[in-house]
Design brief:
By secondary structure, this protein is mainly beta. Strand 3 and strand 4 form a beta hairpin. The longest helix has 15 residues.
């Protein structure tokens, strides 16, 4: 009988507590060129309320190359970007971007591969990009 009461109490507590879930957007893994200088992931909040986001850039092997929480919630109309320069393991590997937030309904983003005629220094120009979905 005690077991039934404890099990019922546990079930009631679990039913009353909310489950915290995060939404995620990500890009496909993309290549730039052999000597791609940097990857940049950009996210824009076009909604009316601030959103806490985490932006990540990954190498094709799954290694986390860069991350940011944008210094706090991303306000309406604001954007955040994360940049990763090309030291290994980034060269000759595809890169991808992901954004995690409580909701991604009002977020848009992309990953951009850039290169420069002066490796490691600007000006940078776009080689390839892919949207976050």
């Amino acid at each position: 009988m005690k077991t039934l009461i404890v099990a019922t109490a546990c079930a009631a507590v679990l039913a009353l507590t909310g489950v915290s879930q995060a939404a995620k957007m990500s890009s496909a893994g993309i290549f730039g060129v052999e000597f791609q200088d940097r990857a940049e992931c950009v996210v824009l909040n076009f909604g009316n309320t601030p959103v806490a986001v985490t932006v990540n850039i990954f190498a094709g092997s799954g290694v986390l190359l860069a991350t940011s929480n944008c210094g706090g919630p991303l306000g309406p109309g604001q954007f955040c970007n994360v940049v990763r320069n090309s030291p290994p393991p980034f060269e000759n590997e595809p890169v991808s971007c992901s954004v995690t937030a409580p909701s991604t309904t009002n977020l848009r983003g992309a990953i951009v591969i850039e290169e420069s005629p002066f490796p490691g220094h600007g000006p940078f120009h776009l080689v390839r990009s892919a949207p976050l979905r």
